[in-house]
């Protein structure tokens, strides 16, 4: 009866019958696509903000790699061992970049301050890590411990959030203290003010 009514009222459209499983599969696909689009937009806006904040398009773009790697590595491992990247997990991918960018901003801003004052690459990196490193380590430790509490939650989503966000923020700190200096030594050829 519903099909007949639909065909009568909307002759130019075709009604496709499906199940709840198909509906949720399609909804899951749409949500995942929208989350990926949102993540790309978020990454673009963060990169542009870094370009302005650091007063260098070059270093704003250079900062993308250490900000992408932590979430990419942790989510890759999650996909291999858990095998499920549902919309909630994908949403954490977008949230994580907002958390990890903070460490990079502090190290890069101190590094660029040294470079603009005439210091060499190695001295500027060492100074940036010496000045920003302890505070970043404490902040990361506090954040990781605070989120770790969620592992004991009754809700699977909170447990997943803890299991993903803790390694992401810890890995971000490690990459910013070990990998970012390598990137800077290799690619810092000039300062390009905006």
Per CATH, the superfamily is Multidrug efflux transporter AcrB transmembrane domain
**CATH C-level category:** Mainly Alpha
Which strand-content bin applies to the residues?
under 5%
Mean pLDDT: 88
**SS element count, helices:** 7
SSE order: HHHHHHH
Cα distance spanning the termini: 65 Å
Class derived from helix and strand content: mainly alpha
Corresponding CATH architecture: Up-down Bundle
Question: Main β-sheet, in a few words?
Answer: none
According to CATH, the fold-level topology is Multidrug efflux transporter AcrB transmembrane fold
* General shape: elongated
Count of discrete domains: 1
Count of DSSP strands? 0
Low-confidence stretches: none
Describe this structure in words.
With 194 residues, the protein is an all-alpha fold. The protein has a single domain (2-187), classed as Up-down Bundle (Multidrug efflux transporter AcrB transmembrane fold), CATH 1.20.1640. Helix content is 81%, strand content 0%. The chain has 7 helices and no strands. The model has no long low-confidence stretch (mean pLDDT 88).
